Amino acid sequence: MSARLIDLLLRLSPRERGLLAIAVFVVGPLVVVFGLLLPLTERREAALQTEAEAVALHNWVQDRAAEQVQYGAAPQQVPQPAIGSSGIEQQLIDAQLRPSVSELATQAGGVVELRFDEVDFIRLANWMTSAHPDWGYAIASFRFEASDSPGKIAAWLVLRPQQG
């Protein structure tokens, strides 16, 4: 086998032997690097990123579970009577959110629906945090969607009167 290889190389001109040497010693390692090692490195980086995201999610879930334990130990609040859509509207005016309200509707059973097509997220979150304990409603459902404007969202809230 080696005799055939030597015989083949001796038949080639010096220029052909030089090109063959370049192909073997330069192109060959480049093929190995770009064909095998780089894809493995990219997959490793993707796996490390996925692992970091999973660890962050795990930590977040543990933090929420710890919060739930705290809330479970807190004394239960006595449900307040529902303030009605006019009371909610007054709170929205006080929080300077009324111009952002696209829909404020009352359904049967005192259920209130709120829709904001574009509202400042921080202002809405602060209003919900401060108003929620006293307004006599439980949040039955909500949906927030990011908008193109920074810090702005579209929001839908359905509020049900708290059960006493």
TrEMBL record:
<keyword id="KW-1133">Transmembrane helix</keyword>
<keyword id="KW-0812">Transmembrane</keyword>
<protein>
    <submittedName>
        <fullName>General secretion pathway, M protein</fullName>
    </submittedName>
</protein>
<dbReference type="GO" id="GO:0015627">
    <property type="term" value="C:type II protein secretion system complex"/>
</dbReference>
<dbReference type="GO" id="GO:0015628">
    <property type="term" value="P:protein secretion by the type II secretion system"/>
</dbReference>
<dbReference type="Pfam" id="PF04612">
    <property type="entry name" value="T2SSM"/>
</dbReference>
<keyword id="KW-0472">Membrane</keyword>
<dbReference type="InterPro" id="IPR007690">
    <property type="entry name" value="T2SS_GspM"/>
</dbReference>
<feature type="transmembrane region" description="Helical">
    <location>
        <begin position="20"/>
        <end position="40"/>
    </location>
</feature>
